[in-house]
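> call design_seq(struct)
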């Protein structure tokens, strides 16, 4: 490991920047349904239920592919795995760009989801293989920050661009950027033998996965990460912007800013701050309980409060993002309660839980919207009722946080 960090040091930072940029573009595409949702609905391209299904199928496929993707990376190596990830993301984006019906949209999101399931693992492997161990936390926090900032672009910036330009061309341009990032990164990545030998490669099998599931504290910790991220990112990925427009009548710009961008931006900022404070011993995991309570309060106010000003809704979005960043503290629990052999599996399991919760939330929201329309509820009331799914899941998250062992 030490040899890799010295031999490849000249290009390490550049490779990290490039692969982080690709990871950010993947997060942007994951969250990109929100900016186009109003266009699809107003032009009768897709219904609310079909949009919910598009979001849910993405999360479900990533949940199913997360562990297999980790195993594939281990078997065939980082360079080829990154190529698979990038090519799938690019193809999925291009298919989406030329789509005009639900079936092709569903196929393209599915292809994106398979590619997305590799991106985080590949990015983490770059950090592990190109940098010294003492820099892991710094670079992982930086990776998350860059990724969340990419997702934040799906809010006001992407909404503004799509308003001015045809959304088909916007997605084609994103695919072009990914092609450039992929080619340059692939050229710079070292060949496989410089990364790991068979002796060093972790062998993930069913017994190891069951060992993680049987450890109550590890299981709860990974479920907390998945649950909280799923709740707040389901809000920011697709529902927040549409909700603010349909229920409270905000403009597209304000709705995109508060319903998406600010949540992602302050999730990124909060993760860096909390990660730094935790590393120097200025904060402990008990703060997670208070941040989970803050998430419930701010989301309820965001969804059901009296919105007299855009400033107030933006403040709430900021607090929602900060409360979500508490998930970085859960990794302390994972490290504390998980055998070193199983830490990688536990982290992969947290992503699996995130996607399972996300797909379930979006399927349920879509179902509630459909039933509400059949019962002739107003669109505003239908959205209010459907968003209770997110609130209930946040209470579930708090219950799991309170179950964790005290420091």
């Amino acid at each position: 490991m030490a040899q890799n960090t010295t031999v490849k040091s000249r290009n390490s930072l550049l490779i990290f920047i490039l692969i982080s940029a690709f990871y950010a573009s993947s997060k942007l595409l994951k969250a990109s349904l929100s900016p186009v949702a109003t266009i699809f609905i107003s032009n009768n391209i897709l219904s609310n239920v079909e949009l919910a299904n598009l979001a849910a199928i993405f999360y479900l496929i990533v949940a199913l592919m997360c562990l297999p993707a980790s195993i594939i990376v281990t078997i065939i190596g980082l360079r080829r795995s990154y190529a698979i990830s990038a090519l799938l993301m690019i193809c999925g984006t291009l298919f989406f760009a030329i789509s005009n019906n639900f079936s092709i949209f569903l196929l393209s999101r599915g292809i994106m989801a398979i590619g997305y399931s590799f991106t985080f693992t590949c990015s983490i492997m770059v950090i592990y293989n190109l940098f010294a161990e003492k820099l892991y936390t710094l670079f992982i926090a930086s990776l998350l920050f860059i990724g969340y900032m990419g997702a934040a672009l799906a809010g006001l910036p992407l909404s503004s661009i799509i308003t001015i330009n045809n959304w088909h061309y916007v997605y084609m341009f994103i695919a072009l950027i990914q092609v450039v990032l992929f080619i340059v990164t692939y050229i710079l990545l070292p060949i496989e033998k410089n990364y790991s030998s068979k002796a060093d490669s972790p062998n993930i099998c069913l017994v190891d996965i069951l060992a993680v599931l049987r450890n109550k504290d590890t299981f709860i910790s990974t479920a907390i990460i998945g649950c909280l991220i799923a709740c707040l990112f389901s809000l920011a990925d697709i529902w927040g912007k549409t909700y603010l427009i349909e229920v409270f009548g905000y403009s597209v710009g304000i709705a995109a800013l508060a319903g998406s961008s600010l949540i992602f931006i302050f999730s990124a900022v909060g993760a860096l701050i909390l990660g730094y404070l935790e590393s120097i011993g200025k904060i402990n995991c008990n703060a997670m309980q208070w941040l989970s309570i803050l998430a419930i309060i701010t989301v309820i106010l965001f969804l059901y409060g009296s919105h007299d000003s855009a400033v107030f809704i933006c403040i709430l979005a900021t607090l929602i993002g900060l409360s979500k960043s508490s998930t970085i503290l859960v990794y302390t629990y994972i490290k504390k309660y998980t055998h070193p052999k199983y830490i990688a599996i536990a982290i992969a399991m947290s992503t699996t839980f995130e996607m399972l919760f996300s797909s379930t939330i979006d399927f349920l929201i879509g179902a509630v919207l459909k039933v509400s329309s059949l019962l002739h509820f107003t669109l505003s009331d239908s959205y209010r009722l459907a968003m209770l799914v997110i609130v209930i899941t946040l209470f579930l998250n708090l219950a799991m946080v309170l179950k964790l062992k005290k420091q």
